[in-house]
Amino acid sequence: MVDSLYYLPNDIGVSALNCSEAFRLLSPQEKMYSHYLSRATWYGGLIVLLQTSPESVDIFVLLQRIFRKQTPEQLELVAKAAGLSSEEYQAFLVYAAGVYANMGNYKSFGDTKFIPNLPKDKLETLVKASQAFQEKPSEMQALWDSCSCLMYSLKDRQKQLGLGDKGITTYFSGNCCLEDAELAQRFLDSKKLSAYNTRLFKKDDGGKTCYEVRLASVVQKDCAVDGECESCCGSFSFENKEFIVKRGDYNPLLEKVCHCLQQAQAYAANENQRKMLEEYQRSFTIGSIEAHKEGSRYWIKDKGPIVESYIGFIESYRDPFGSRGEFEGFVAVVNKAMSERFAKLVSSAEVLLPELPWPREFEKDTFLKPDFTSLDVLTFAGSGIPAGINIPNYDDIRQSEGFKNVSLGNVVAISYATKKEKLTFLEEKDKDLFIKWKGPSFEVQVGLHELLGHGSGKLFVQDDDGKFNFDQSEVINPETGEQVSSWYRGSETWDSKFSTIASSYEECRAECVGLYLCINKQVLSIFGHEDQDAEDVVYINWLSMVRAGLLGLEFYTPENKGWRQAHMQARFVILRVLLEAGEGLVGLEEVTGQDGKPDARITLDRSKIHTVGKSAIHRFLCKLQVLKSTADVEGGRALYQRYSSVSDEGAHNFPRLRDIVLLRKEDRKMFVQANTRVDGDVVELVEYEGSAAGLIRSFTERFPEDAEQVEVDLLALNTKDAPCWC
């Protein structure tokens, strides 16, 4: 049962992300713009391999070299001749597809390692029988030797991503621990440097500890560049430790990103897009987050584009400390019909915001109406594809200048298509209703979560000049009845202050906003739901959240009492809050399944959602916001960790329920994405079948002009840092 955590099953869902109709409707200029932006995102997405594990690059290059020489169909004949069964060969294809889909050998959703589900000697036999190995045996042998042991290793520390002895990370050298991460954050704050585009390497310099902060950039010079008054690089003494700030991380990959962004500029629709791409290039060239912020400002101003995109070091979920951004980029086409609904939600936001349970002083002074569009994804490069996004993540911009929301419609459509026989933990009477309304209810939840969840709430700040953005003599903390006594100071941000719990805590707050406001009739009407249908949407949205809370236990690691996925921890916390509400609102019991094995059953009393349920979320959501607004890290941690606790004390044995969840878990689907290529003046969309073989082919054809050089660059970057992970 436990071992199934660490491999992908042969029957895992693999679906093609369909965007052909959306792409067909683009003008020739828009297609060219999309093509070059897609090229930039694919090159940048390779950075994730270097941000995941020491072996990810070598595994990726090994697979690329095998499959660039032989298609999955051709290699199958080799596998058969080498003595592999059809199940073993399929397991290899699924593993390869998993590495491509997750950009490494750790699951993007849950941060768990996955290994090939076939014997190591069988895989070695196949590798050595491949055409790639036959043509270059010494190179391929070296690649196999460099990654095969780690590819299969399930030592405790290597089972999941984490910091120090809790797991594997390449955001920090292998000798770093939490104290080093905290020290580095204080140093970065003191220099007003963002951690988003950095990695930290701890070195011994003649018996003295030295920390190297490495900025992602094309430029490798550490002197002042491109209009800087003074360089942010150099050697600094801080708290009796030496820090060296250097440029040049991921240099050859970012060079390719910048080249493609420059090509895209020629096809930009307006000045905002041109300026945006210019600033992104500057950011990636010199390693400047301030330039990326400037690009994000132009991006926010680019209202209602036909082709939407974003690129950079964005989400901090996979940094064990919660401050460094994983590289991602997307290119997508607006779905006009669905976007109209989201536009109506934006128009209603100023009416809906006062409905939230915190005092007016805890809300932003003005609601900056964002773009909110439904998009069909053409390209999404990174470790995984979300259903919705609220960006940029820079607090100072979000608070005073605005943000954008996107719902990724073709992702939602595939992700939440569910077969009745695979619906776990629900009563039979709920299953048909769940299948009917899961998609529509999730659209409502995503809309509220992104727009009014992540888009709401004020942070109390005292800037470097001592100026407050609130009246500290008047604002009362509703939880204590006293004046607000804590706030963010200077360059402190939500991520830097709340660090390890920031991502999950914020996802929990946004999910609670979705639950709280989805019962509003005006919201339901915007999405086209009235009367009984509206009540069914509410019921399934709440039931789905409760079920997701139980499913979240898959992403808890009892050995280190840690959570590996921010959203699933958030949903478990919400389940705990609703169970605590009592009065029969939520039922959770262990039962015996029809197969005679342990099972669990969830119930939700729909008649109590508007009363008991709403009241419980009201109280909890207010606490979350007040603690966030006032930078009360101690109170925030105590509250969140109490509800995140997985124990056997009380009415429910959560460790035993976790075993049941693992017994009946279903792996997340993988997406096959199209490629674009230019033929003369025409951009063609190249699509692939929704299978492991199709996913593999999409990647082996992704870098047609320079695949070998890309692999050489990746291996060189990886080899250079190899000693740092020991």
Automatic annotation (TrEMBL):
Protein name stated in the entry: Dipeptidyl peptidase 3
Cofactor note: Binds 1 zinc ion per subunit.
Subcellular localization(s) per the UniProt record: Cytoplasm
Catalytic activity entry: Release of an N-terminal dipeptide from a peptide comprising four or more residues, with broad specificity. Also acts on dipeptidyl 2-naphthylamides
Enzyme Commission number, as recorded: 3.4.14.4
GO molecular function: aminopeptidase activity; dipeptidyl-peptidase activity; metal ion binding; metalloexopeptidase activity
Gene (UniProt): DPP3
Cofactor: Zn(2+)
Lineage, top ranks: Eukaryota, Metazoa, Chordata, Craniata, Vertebrata
Gene Ontology annotations of biological process type: proteolysis
InterPro entries (alphabetical): Dipeptidyl-peptase3 (IPR005317), Peptidase_M49 (IPR039461)
Active site: E450
Gene3D superfamilies referenced in this protein's UniProt entry, alphabetically: 3.30.540.30
Pfam families reported for this sequence: Peptidase_M49
UniProt keyword annotations, A-Z: Aminopeptidase, Cytoplasm, Hydrolase, Metal-binding, Metalloprotease, Protease, Zinc
Residues annotated as binding Zn(2+): H449, H454, E507
Family: Belongs to the peptidase M49 family.
One cellular component term from this protein's GO annotations in UniProt: cytoplasm
